Amino acid sequence: MTNPAMTSTPVQRFLSLDVLRGITICFMIMVNNSGGRGAWAQMHHAEWNGLTATDLVFPTFIFVVGASIVFAVEARLARGAARAQIAWHTFRRAVILYLLGIVVNSFPLFHLEHMRFYGVLQRTAVCYLVIGLFYLWDKRVWTKVAMLGVALLGYWVLVQWVPVPGAGVPGRDIPFLDKNMNIVAWTDRQLMPYHLYESSPLHNMCDPEGLLSDIPALGTTLLGLLAALWMRGPKSIKEKTLGLAAGAVVCLGTGYLWSIWFPLNKKMWTSSFVLTAAGWSLVALTLFFWLVEQRGWGKSAKKKWLYPWLVFGSNAITAYMFSELLPEGLGNIHYMANGQQTSVMRQIHDAIVYSIPNLAWGCFAYSLIFAATCFIPVWIMYRKKIFLKV
How far is CA 251 from CA 87, 144, 185, 247, in A? Predict the structure, then answer.
């Protein structure tokens, strides 16, 4: 029997996916530069268990990475590239992404004794490498579903029932999903002491992009890949839209139901969080797929409304790198003002945030202006048809 994923339409590029990538990277830049504690709650991550709009940004980006794997691999195969060449390209790109993550974490001082080796781009690199090679090796849908189940259920078993050395079994000897005493944080403390996102005091050392939580992140990538396989399938555009919507309902329903026993937690990337976040990613993708592919926004005068997101999406990693390096660079240019030491970045921040009476709106204005600033270099690149593909 023929696999539907293999009887696909000719290789094509769905603008709806590019739009989702662009909006995601724009929102990522905004929440990473939200203006401070005065910003609205939805512009911050949940403190521990729970879910905010900000918590959905990174998993949506990983979801898009998973979807992009399908189109990138199929495009290269269609151009006659050998599988060995694609595998080497995937490996090389993952290494570059990982190293760029090190640059983002360490710029501009690069202190080795506290250098953080985990991070956003590092997790992206791991997910891209593992799932990219897996798809290149085996394109069958059922193997992806099986791996998804193993990743999510296996992580639940790991976090729920594996004893934390020196502490005990979660739910019996220590609270389940305790912030400091969980197997994920314990593993990172053994492997990367003093190289974690939260590094002091010792018992609070943990990292939201740690090693073991890469396991469910692979599930996020797989869900994006499965969505792309559906998009490339032989169904009509309308049927594809309905299928994406159905996938969103299934993921949201399953994720929120599972969260009763395995709470939503972005910092630990819990399995319920994977499904719920993917559900919301599918809601957004369904909306853009309907507007762009079904309603024809990508081929009509309405395409101008998509322009900013296509610009951001075309050089997403460049936009992200610029947004991370710019404030670090300006933040390290110090000088004296009114008898106190300050920095260029601090002065820009205060000039925008405190120029508006309402602090939350001031923070939002800052994040919006910052994102607009990051738009400039990628807009210039887009106009010159420069697309950096690491």
Answer: 30, 16, 27, 6
